[in-house]
Amino acid sequence: MRKVFGAAALAALLVAVVPANAEAGLKIFACVPEWGVLAKAIGGDAVEVTTAILPIDNPETVRPTPALITNLQAADLLVCTGAGLEDEWLDPLLDRAGNAAVMPGQPGHFLASKFATLIEDEAHHDIGAQPGQHHETGVNPHIHGDPGNVLKVAAQLARRMIELDPEHKAAYSDGVRTFIRDLGAAKKELEAQAAPLRGIAVAVQHDHSRYLFAWLGIRSVATIEVEHGVPPGPARLAQIIDMVPRQGIKLVAYVVFSDPAPSRFVGEKAGIPTVMLPYTVGGTAGAADFIGLYRDSVERLLSGLNGVGRS
């Protein structure tokens, strides 16, 4: 069931997807909300940004609707994650849009993962998972969970926007400087606030939050759904529940677009809290921007560590 969030989150979402004005320098198509919000933070009124999905949608399963095709046809810049995240739907969408400017290899085709520090799935398997049960690319694509990655992507995205639209260089330079300054300061503040989380063991419904946990020093030791959206069987659920006391698991985490039932079942049977995480900007009312995304995530995890579930 989709959740209804507050006015602040809705306003942030509308900023990310509604054209700013008729004089915009760049028309940007973002595959996922985080990059739409980042592009808008850098470009301000100099850009028009449309985003393929809502923050409460699964970014790996997108249907290429006529509206998406039209928006992509008009785009000067495509901003996606890469690393396998959009593999199931982006190529068919590009083929149907037929916009040469945003095809792979062109300046208008920007993949954020090329500028991030990636985590290999093979090197970070949780206990009980088997090789080959994670992403086909061998890396986890949910890179925006680490603000350090977002800072790197912001710098490179601003450079690309200036390359494509040098007329608005001053606006893009000012925008990215402000973004990096503010997020960098918040990152340090939140690392101090999150110190009690360092070293704790958690179970997750799926591996959407691996970068967030790596940043905060949290150990993800059990995955309930090895393949997202495929419900775990009774044997898998029993295995996870049995692991809770043996591994000292403190909480079960799931993200906003996941079915919470498996996580809640494990939490109830094991006697530990379940915590819903926003996953991306706009995923919860408190995650209206990038700083809010990380602050809300830290606060929710701290609540779980203190025995209080969050949904």
Give the percentage of residues in beta strands.
5-15%
The outline comes out as globular
Question: How far from one another are the termini?
Answer: 13 Å
What structural class do you assign from the helix and strand content? alpha/beta
Radius of gyration: 19 Å
Q: What's the number of extended β-strand segments?
A: 10
Mean of pLDDT? 90
Instruction: Give start-end ranges of low-pLDDT stretches.
Output: 1-22, 129-135
Protein described:
The protein has 311 residues and is α/β, with parallel strands linked by helices. The chain is built from ten helices and ten strands. The protein has helices spanning 7-17, 33-43, 66-73, 90-97, 147-164, 169-193, 210-216, 234-247, 261-270, 290-305, and strands spanning 26-30, 47-51, 77-80, 109-111, 119-120, 139-140, 201-204, 219-223, 249-255, 274-277. The chain has a four-stranded parallel sheet. Helix 1 packs across helix 2 (33-43), helix 6 runs parallel beside helix 10 and helix 8 (234-247) crosses helix 9. The longest helix is centred in the middle third of the chain and has 25 residues, at 169-193. The protein is globular, with a radius of gyration of 19 Å.
